[in-house]
Write a structure and sequence with these properties.
The protein is an alpha+beta fold. 48% of the residues lie in helices and 11% in strands. A hairpin with a 2-residue loop joins strand 3 (119-126) and strand 4 (129-132). Helix 2 packs across helix 4. 22% of the residues are buried. It is found in: Nucleus. One of its GO terms (cellular component) is nucleus.
């Protein structure tokens, strides 16, 4: 996995990460993408000016912010498309009915660019295997051939736009290496910041822990080894036992505190504690 180039998320520069992860190198910087965006803005301004610089439409256009970039580091699909043209690459909308009617198996493509709202990421074939190169992940995520179509269908269901990258991608070390060997991945890479989230889960009530585990470990098409699964279940059972013990200790401390305050057994506070809790 070390040979695979993978930029992690910085700020809102997911378009830059998406392109560099696709091309497997530091090919684009925010400055270069901003230059492309400014060029697109100028071309749009010139087209609007053809209708007259004194027109209401032109004045309104000048007052509106750029649709090709913003201060956060977001770049539009037009910027990404123009950046890829430098490499002779073209984007085709995978979601479109026209492309779907061709009946092309996704496994026969080379790479995809996915977008939801303002986040971009790449799914690419390196050697003979597919990888999710999302910059929000701590590292590349292996996607099995059988799971690829399901993975893309799930993204479509969630509202993602998916683009097929057509053309010859530049040569890279990872592609050459993975032509000769196949890698295995026992556990999916974590999301950036997921470790912090997991430490918070340990302080949640049991039902919330169960829900958090389900969210953070969705079905991803790669099976966990039996031994690891058993260890996971044992760790989960131990965590539940610890939570139960902490609950019992908390109840005991409350009962002791009430007795030290001279609380009467007939008060509403002691009524809320069962006989088992006070024992």
């Amino acid at each position: 996995m070390e040979a695979i180039f993978h930029e992690r998320q910085e700020g809102s520069l997911c378009a830059q990460h998406c392109l560099n992860n696709l091309l497997q190198g530091e090919y684009f910087s925010p400055v270069e993408l901003s230059s492309i965006a400014q060029q697109l803005d100028e071309e749009e301004r010139m087209r609007m000016a053809e209708g007259g610089v004194s027109s209401e439409e032109y004045r309104t256009f000048l007052q509106q912010p750029s649709v090709n970039m913003d201060d956060s580091g977001f770049f539009s699909i037009q910027v990404i498309s123009n950046a890829l043209k430098v490499w002779g690459l073209e984007l085709i909308l995978f979601n479109s009915p026209e492309y779907q009617r061709l009946g092309i198996d996704p496994i026969n493509e080379k790479s995809f660019i996915c977008n939801y709202k303002e986040h971009w990421f790449t799914v690419r074939k390196l050697g003979k295997q597919w990888f999710n190169l999302n910059s929000l992940l701590m590292g590349p995520e292996l996607i099995s051939d059988t799971y690829l179509a399901l993975f893309l269908a799930q993204l479509q269901q969630e509202g993602y736009s998916i683009f097929v990258v057509k053309g010859d991608l530049p040569d890279c070390e990872a592609d050459q290496l993975l032509q000769m060997i196949r890698v295995q991945q026992v556990q999916r890479p974590k999301l950036i910041g997921e470790e912090t989230a997991q430490s918070r889960e340990q302080r949640l009530p049991r039902s919330d822990v169960d829900q958090a585990i389900e969210v953070n470990h969705p079905f991803d098409g790669t099976s966990m080894l039996d031994e690891d699964e058993e260890n996971f279940q044992r760790a989960l059972a131990l965590s539940r036992q610890e939570i139960d013990m902490e609950d019992e200790e908390a109840d005991l401390r409350r009962a002791i505190q009430l007795s030290m305050q001279g609380a009467s057994p007939n008060t509403s506070q002691t009524d809320s504690l069962s006989s088992e809790e006070l024992s």
